[in-house]
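Most newcomers find our protein records easier to grasp once they have seen one. Read left to right, the backbone structure tokens trace the chain's path through space. Once this layout is familiar, the rest of the handout is easier to follow. The record below serves as our worked example for the rest of this section:


***
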Amino acid sequence: MASAPVKIVALSGSLRKGSYHSGLIRAAIQLSAAIDGIEIDFADISTLPFINTDLENQNGVAYPPVVEALRKKIVEADAFLFASPEYNYSLSPVLKNAIDWASRPPNVWAGKTAAIISTGGGFGGGRSHYHLRQVGVFLDLHFINKPEFVLNAFQPPAKYNADGDLIDEDAKTQLKDVLLSLQAFTLRLRSNN
């Protein structure tokens, strides 16, 4: 009997219209169509209010509706794909905000698997991975260790087109390897539970 598909929720830590990180998620969604047993759903975090506990438990609702919608998506997911830009050697405020909202009681991240992908200059945004992994310890997230995905967006040949879509075939192959690793790790954890 075939196991249920691995449901992955993807979050981009960049709000820019032509974001390369959102481009990575679009590429992952396209690549997942050729991988049996993976479904990727993009979670738009651009409209979340800044975390503020004064917004909780108002009018008989635990969280604002947009926060509740994100939390529901996370509850229904098996795994997460974080496209994490590097802001001052760390993760972006918008991504941390989404993480913090979903960690409010009850923490809906706990016990699930995750992968991090980054792109940018120099180290390709890789320093954000370290802080996101640290945050994941408290969240009880289980990150894949290999392969790591950091992509220097500005080193020739061109990695993206003018719309921010990933066009580099080597990078697509590496991204597919991340998805396969995340799927395998999720299935291993699922079989142990």
